[in-house]
């Protein structure tokens, strides 16, 4: 939801909370990890671009 609104920091935080909840199975945690990796990379690019402007 947050990622769709463009709020990457909030989306990353939500996924980190989901990751640390401890009630997910291997498949669910793998999906969360992959999404976290993607969002962190996207956020890093946005921050780099913002610094250039």
Could you describe the 3D structure shown?
- The protein has one domain.
- The chain has 3 helices and no strands.
- It is 83% helix and 0% strand.
- The model has no long low-confidence stretch (mean pLDDT 93).
- By secondary structure, the chain is mostly helical.
- The relative contact order is 0.15.
Question: Can you lay out the helices and strands and say which pair or pack?
Answer:
Blueprint: H1 2-5, H2 8-20, H3 26-52
Helix pairs in contact: 2-3
What can be said about this structure in brief?
The protein has 53 residues and is an all-alpha fold.
Structural class: mainly alpha
> How many runs of DSSP E, i.e. beta strands?
0
What is the CA-based Rg, rounded? 12 Å
Please tally the helical runs, counting DSSP H or I stretches of 4 or more residues.
3
- Biggest sheet details: none
What proportion strand?
A: under 5%
- Low-pLDDT parts are none
Structural key phrases:
53 residues; mainly alpha; 83% helix
